[in-house]
């Protein structure tokens, strides 16, 4: 069984909904399991993530970067970083914010560099820019490549995240699950 851990933070629930979509995308791939882990719980025991083939990292963009709750998790992994314990594990990321840009790219870059520091292998979104079509219902309507982005209209409460962004998060989950399957095969060849 290939396993994908989804480590996420969410202050108000919008990013949690995306994390659920990522999990739904993961389990569309036969033989693959998904588990959601809240970042603050993962911060208390980051070694609980050691056994996953891939980690999908997700948080809202707060003040132009990862939310403090997610940063707490990042900092808590420094002991694992020291031993490069997650080297060659796959990683990917997603973020959500109130603005169309809102500086979400900076959050994805920070998630990606975090993964690079750990020696992990980053999986991008792999979807063309869906924003140039007239329909905002297209996948990747925000035109992101490093990971999945979502814009939540905060004045609409929990209905504020468009279905297209939720579907984009689901597509990321499926892509990571497929990549993890291939990665396991190559690991077997190396051993
Ligand atoms: C402390 C704080 C800082 C924020 N900073 C930004 C920001 O830099 N850019 C942006 O577009 N939205 C920003 N927002 C809006 C959130 O990203 C948005 O409400 C998001 O949907 C929250 O996700 P959550 O429900 O998972 O917490 C901020 C919200 C808060 C509470």
From TrEMBL:
This is Flavodoxin family protein. InterPro entries: Flavodoxin/NO_synth, Flavodoxin_CS, Flavoprotein-like_sf, FMN_Rdtase-like_dom. One of its GO terms (molecular function) is NAD(P)H dehydrogenase (quinone) activity. One of its GO terms (cellular component) is membrane. Residues 4-150 form the Flavodoxin-like domain.
